[in-house]
Design goal:
By secondary structure, the protein is α+β, with helices and mostly antiparallel strands. The chain has 2 domains: about 15-195, Jelly Rolls, CATH 2.60.120; about 205-635, Glycoside hydrolase 144 (GH144) (Glycosyltransferase, Alpha/alpha barrel). Helices cover about 30% and strands about 25% of the residues. It is elongated. The N and C termini lie far apart (about 75 Å).
Amino acid sequence: MVLAESPFKSVSAGKDLRSLPEFLVVDDFNNPELKNLFGAPWEMEAPDPERAKTRYVSDDAVQETRGNSLVFDFALPPQEKVIFKSSLRGLDASQALAFVFKCQTKAPEGEALAGKLELVLEDVEGQTDTADLSSVCLSAEASGRWRDAIISRRPAPAADWNKLEKISFVFSAPQLPLQGQVILDEAAFYGKGDVAFLSKKDNLLGFPTKPSASQRRKEILKQPDDNKFLYEIARDTWKYFENAVDRTTQLPVDHIRIGDPGDIGAYTTPTNLAMYFLACVAARELGFISKKEAAGRIKKTFETLRKIKRWKGFHYNYYNTATLQVTRDYVSSVDTGWLAAAWMVIRQAFGGELAEEATKFLEEIDFLEFYDEGIGQVRLGFDAKKNDYAPYHYGLIATEARVMSFIGIGKGDLPREHWWFIYRTPPTRWSWQNQVPQGKDVEIERVTFFQGYYTYQGRKFVPSWGGSLFEFLMPTLVMKERELAPQSFGYNNRVATEIQIDYGLNRQGYPLWGFSPASTSSGRQTRYAEYGVKYLGVKGYKDDGVVSPHASLLALDTLPDQAIDNVRRMFQLYEAYGEYGPYDSINVRNGKVNTQYLALDQGMILAAIANYLKKGVIQTYFHKDPIARHAESLLTEEKWAP
């Protein structure tokens, strides 16, 4: 499509291009580190670096009173070529109509430059689109004056604009030496509407049509039967996993945001994958999909997991859901633990080919890779870019990481004594913690450790790091702690829920409780942060009035009546419900609902409801697995309840 006029004509003088959704800006050349807006550095490829250099000047093409542009100074001998390039990191610009930028020249005596300027866009497969912009950017008309360079996207471009990997400006000298300056600014993809959002949206199977499902919310609130009420919430929540997966790779995206502006986090993590797999099992158990469809979905995702880049069998923590590129060279032990838990559930829930493939994945990882024998704890992960392990450890038992430790021991990767080297509370000498812990040294399985506890209004409990319900209760999605550990984890999970309720409703006077990591929004910006009850944590997170529906639904395992009452009240007071079920968070101080869905939350909600309605079905699959059976006695050995 050829644009009728330059997109820059509609931009008001002094306007920041990044604030306009129709422009997906690659670089405005205002970063002194010479990196584009995706964080990738610009690089010069030249036979003689002294003949081609770059520098910034305070002459912005759009923001006249502020901002910079980039100057190329070059003196090239005949037929020499210089390439100025940067990574686009698999950028999806599929809904862009053109690539545009501003350019001008400074040549001797104001003449045209006799060389050639080409723009090259290259996709992840190495296919390229090339445009000759010499007549625009090197002409006499461009001497000392900004000109608009427009490269319209062809109907069938050679490069895949869904997966653009590299951008290059190529300067070539003709038969004669070439000397002068070329100045660039405001390089961007242009489209109608929010080009970045629409480009990612077309990769998904579906997307909600409106921010609020007010009528649906009222319908489910009228349902007097609590089980049916929860069933309807689960049915809507499943729609996230029906739709928010890449139509080609079958990977679930990390999050979506509804409304204006919309947003799609087109990347995924091992925990997101685990939640997707558990959601497929839950949807089958609740009757939303058949066993055949659930298995088919999982099989397609397994095929993708088999071919993407891994480290020693471990999946990396961040993948682009469209290009499958690793977007951060980091391997997380706890995230891998959740993916392993899902593989265990899958091989018990389905059998056959899926079980065989899940078993292969499990056998290809060894949690000993992260084990620090010196202190008996597991490191957070491995940074492949630095070729080094994370300097910190998962040191507290009352966190979501205990699932990883449980599985590692059950697999035989980690020694059994590791369980007893994880702190119940930090040592009393650690003066920075919220309380001086009480307790005593105990010996279990020939390991002596401090069995400490905190108190809240006379109630004993073992603290998490931040005091969020996520830390205490996420393990109950797969582990039968209420049944197998009533005098340790089962007790502790219930007390943590009771303290959250008391803190939210009584101490703070909020209408709701349920403080857990969540995402909040301000304008076009969203921020994921930890929230909790400080008194429940060793360090303690702030609450900021932010509650999350997933926290209440996790509490179906501990205090189901109070959890259901809280969810009902949540939907009565706030428009916190959309087409895919409960939204991620509500700020009860200002009433603001963050109209966003997170794969993590959606999976936790579905699994928690399935366990409640189907008598612990996902927990049962997990504990049927030989890995869990081998470690089960860890849950029965310890007793810290009063």
